[in-house]
Amino acid sequence: MNNYKDIIIRPIITEKTMRYMDENNVVTFEVKKGANKILIRQAVENIFHVDVEKVNVVNVCPKKKRVGRYVGMTKAVRKAYVKIKAGQDIDLFGEAEAK
Question: Where residue 21 sits, what CATH number does that domain have?
């Protein structure tokens, strides 16, 4: 993993993660399978220019999903919950969301 942008795949934006972002200053990312906490911390600090306090990593197992008679699986995801120092934030939506 030479490039930091290869480690972070995308931010995960749901109602739950937005609540974590507002209340606890925690941002959730989908990360590459082999990434550890140290690599995730370095990637977030270098890409977004913020100070990271803590990183928690969760492996989400695939679940069976069914549509009619067809059975499939959801994809396995590795999530990183990244706590940012107070007073700093990451702008995930760009300038279009600014009021």
Answer: 3.30.70.330
Q: What is the pTM of this model?
A: 0.85
Name the residue range of residue 22's domain: 4-88
What does the pLDDT read at residue 98? 47
When divided into structural domains, the chain yields a total of: 1
- For residue 16, CA distances in Å to 20, 24, 50 come to 6, 12, 22
* Rounded distance between C-alpha atoms, residue 71 and residue 47, angstroms: 39
Q: Tell me if 65 is assigned to some domain.
A: yes
pLDDT in tens, 31-64: 999 999 999 999 999 999 999 999 999 999 999 9
Ranges assigned E (strand) in 1-99: 8-11, 26-31, 52-60, 64-67, 70-73, 77-84
Helix (H, G, I), strand (E, B) or coil at 65: strand
Report if residue 39 sits inside a domain.
Answer: yes
